[in-house]
Amino acid sequence: MALPALTVDVPPQPWTGRFDGDGREHRRWWQAVSRYAPGSTASSAPAGLSALPASRPAVLLGFASDEGVRRNRGRPGAALAPTALRAALGPLAFHLDRTVSDAGDVVVAGGALEAGQARAGLAITAMLDAGQLTVVLGGGHETAFASYLGLAGSEAIRAGKRLGVLNLDAHFDLRDEPVPSSGTPFLQMAAAEAAAGRGLRYAVVGISEPNNTGALFSTAERLGVRYLRDEDCTAERTRAFVDDFIAGVDVLYLTIDLDVLPASVAPGVSAPAAYGVPLPVISAVCRQVAESGKLLHVDVAELNPAFDVDGRTATVAARLVNTVLR
Ligand SMILES: N=CN[C@@H](CCC(=O)O)C(=O)O
Ligand SMILES: [Mn+2]
Ligand SMILES: [Mn+2]
Predict the structure, then answer these.
(1) Could you read off the pLDDT of 168-180 as tens digits, one per residue?
(2) 263-313, pLDDT tens digit by residue?
(3) This model's pTM is above 0.95
(4) Residue 105 CA to ligand 3 centre (angstroms)
(5) Atom 11 of ligand 1: nearest residue by CA position
(6) b/e map of 122-156 (b: 16 or more CB within 10 Å)?
């Protein structure tokens, strides 16, 4: 049965990159990525209902939003990130054992963040239920609540799979504010999970103590959030922390806030990190999650092309997306 078309605001655009030839041995992302076609999904089982096939198809969805960053009094510009991320992914050599398609962008315009999150959520749910590994290219970290809406609506979560939310981030993003922003998504998730009679399983790698107030640490404590401070993120401790978290869940949502990386590696974000977690540690987490067999959904957030230096942050983000999909 053909599935209904997805509702996005901008359909997938042509990809570009260096051309070395048409053969498989020359293939780069721009040559491999196809336009997402809902009716042609290979798997008939919704993702997460049984074991997740290692090489199931992945689909990219852009969430062009910086309204959450603006509301959080940060530096706007992340709305341009999906385009910059595709431009950075396009030239990379394609070595993946899965197919990748592009579903286009949901665009948050005129400050209508909540409506945009709801639209993206519906699209993500549809793609998860079609057996896809969903990859959202944010957007400010308000992207995470769009991701959550998509996950919460999916057959896997509604069937009772225990979801773990693993955030690579210098910040908790547990702000208690009257309006949703890039600083609130995980408190919003906690509230939504409580309303559904569940608890939020939330872990953060890379917390910067000076960049999170006592109030945020108290909220994290109250919610039972597991976290590893940036200064404690050695390769060994991070691996053990992530392993332990993964062991207690059935399926994983990985969210990569690029400000978890040192400012020298990721200058193009709203709030660059003075300390940051080294790229090899973050990359190893991405590989660990990919190899867990539990990854249901991933997003990358907070890229701000307006503050990037030589596309450095976009290039790193593209590399991490490539690693997660290996
Ligand atoms: N996405 C959230 N970011 C941080 C921003 C911190 C800052 O601008 O200093 C937060 O709200 O805590
Ligand atoms: Mn964040
Ligand atoms: Mn952050």
Answers:
(1) 999 999 999 999 9
(2) 999 999 999 999 999 999 999 999 999 999 999 999 999 999 999 999 999
(3) yes
(4) 22
(5) 183
(6) bbbbbbbbbbbbbbbbbbbbbbbbbbbbbbbbbeb
Q: How confident is the model at residue 1 (pLDDT cuts 50, 70, 90)?
A: very low
Q: Are 182 and 141 in contact (CB under 8 A)?
A: yes
Measure Cα distances from 230 to 128, 171, 234, 284 in Å.
Answer: 32, 10, 9, 15
Please list the residues that pair with 35 across neighbouring strands.
Answer: 102
Q: 211 is written with which tokens? A: 């960049």
CA of 177 to the centre of ligand 3 (A): 17
Residue type, position 177, single letter: E
Q: pLDDT tens for residues 64-107?
A: 999 999 999 999 999 999 999 999 999 999 999 999 999 999 99
Distance in Å, CA 261 to ligand 3 centroid: 9
The minimum-distance atom of ligand 1 relative to the CA of 175 is 11
Treating both helix axes as pointing N-terminal to C-terminal, what angle do 279-291 and 312-324 enclose, rounded to 10 degrees? 30
Q: Which residues contact residue 90 at a Cβ distance below 8 angstroms, ignoring those fewer than 6 apart?
A: 15, 16, 17, 28, 29, 30
Instruction: Give, using CA atoms, the residue closest to atom 7 of ligand 1.
Output: 271
How many other C-beta atoms are found inside a 10 Å radius of the C-beta of residue 213?
Answer: 11
Atom of ligand 1 nearest to the CA of 212: 12
Is 0.85 exceeded by the ipTM?
yes
- Both ends of the chain: CA-CA distance in Å? 30
Q: Using a 6 Å cutoff on CB, does residue 171 contact ligand 1? A: yes
Distance 302 CA to ligand 3 centre (A): 7
DSSP assignment of 138-151, as one string?
ESSTTHHHHHHHHH
Residue carrying structure tokens 């992945």: 58
d(CA 155, ligand 2 centre) in Å: 27
Cα 63 → chain centroid: 10
Question: Is any ligand 1 atom within 6 A of the Cβ of residue 255?
Answer: no
Residue holding tokens 């315009």?
A: 109
